[in-house]
Amino acid sequence: MSARAACWGGGARRARGQAMTEFVVGAVLFLVPLFLIVPTLAKYLDGKAMVTLAARYAAWERTVWYGGASSSVSWPGNSKSEGTIRNEIRQRIFSQDTSIAGGDGGAGDWGGDGQKVFWYNRDSSSMLASYDAVSDSVQNQDTPGIVNDLLNLVVTVTDALGTFTLETKGLYDATVTMDMGAQKVDMSLRDDPTQSWNPGVLGIAENNAILANGWSANGPDHVKSQVKGLTPTGLLDPSSPLGIAMKAVQIALVPFAPELLFLEFGKIEPDIVPPDRLTN
Length: 280
Description:
280 residues; 2 domains; three-stranded antiparallel sheet; two-stranded antiparallel sheet
């Protein structure tokens, strides 16, 4: 073998050795950390999906439970507090293998089999520090736009003439936050806390808003009350002092105009769906 051929053979071996060294260094510095971080990223993404779902749930619940203490005016309707919705979120969305129950709103800890089984670190520690790691804020806000400003003016004027109010806060806004903490990453082959990297706590937040017609009338009695406030003749309701005085005038004029006796000033009766048109 010539000296030149031997030189080429040694160079090839050195190139292969260098490539192997570069691969090992790249694997240690990039591939191995990547393989370790992928499961954690997957858990963060799953947490983000659950927080998004929870924000939608909270906003929707407020459109259904919008009356009572949840409204900005004295408004008939069902009411559910922010704390009740928060506990329902923790039970129904962030707990493992739970079913919907009436007492979810008053629970004080995870339901079912505890928090989601996916949200644990490699050492079996929880990524959620406590039950309070999930929080929310749910509120009714003013419906945006000039129309709502004009509506508020109309309500103010008509309320001066009769009993008439409207819930004009039709923007139901919910924000849900969850704090997730990952396990410390050991940057050495020794169990040395000084060589560990602490990712800290990742706060995941999501907002959802629904614009709904939450000021709709609530049942026949409420319809009657609202229409009475909008109708000038509502002041002549038979049960009111003006209505009683008007009835006396009608009776006095019966000899001259008998048909006046059959006039019902101020009477307001909402249309009610006949029973045969209702289904269970």
